[in-house]
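pasting for the record
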Amino acid sequence: MTHDQLALGAMTFRGRDFEASLDAAQRSGFRAIGISVAQCVACLERGIPPEAMAEALRERDLRVAELELVRLGEDGIAGHLNALVLDLIGILHPDRVHVAAFSGTVEEVKREFATLCEQITATDVAFEFMPYSTVRDVATAVDLVRAAASPRAKLVLDVVHFFRSGAEVSELTPDLLALTAGLQLSDLVPRPGVQLAYESRHLRTFPGDGVLPLADFLRAVLTATGGVPPPITIEPVSDALETLPVAWVAERAMQSTARLLTEAGRPRWPVHGHDRPSRFPSSRRTR
């Protein structure tokens, strides 16, 4: 694995200045980031259209690892945002588009996902199951992806959703990993009585700072993939971390992930990105 397979997730930048977030990710050695449709709308309100976002990424030698989120089974405003995600693919050129479903039945979601995989031809279409969504577990998600019968139909394995859905490390088989477009790493600490959705969206921490068996998870992934795992995104979604400087969050994410991957059996990585020259723009965009 190389730094090219590490990305800083979109929710790490939730509510933050876009260009400052790019600078923080680049300085800490990330080669890719995640972007959400909400961030694109926020940038547009600041006079930064998607084309300018793409330019800012190119200036920093960053790419978009994942663009999110298409919400299946949704109409109204969510449906309009889904259409915006599709429009953004040709501008931001993500490695994959993330998809989830919070409405409808599993069969309805399965049909809609298959249709989406026919619509999107330029990148992978990766479904993310969540224990509080319509598709709640690994087995259901695998069935959905296979039913799409598309080479672009893939899975996202978020470690929080994986373990909170009741999945076991033993389920990380070669067949499952062959369907997986990306891993999302973060961690949790015990919080009795907290609902799963709230915990996932507000109370995560850095990989290795909680109690999830992440080293065991990664060892199983490495075994199943012959030492070549899917790309990894770090996404410690946390209200508390959002109060801290984004540069600190990005650096801490890189350091904790490097330590965890070393524990799982990978070589230690540089944590400051000194293996390539820095390229920072001299001024902020004001359009």
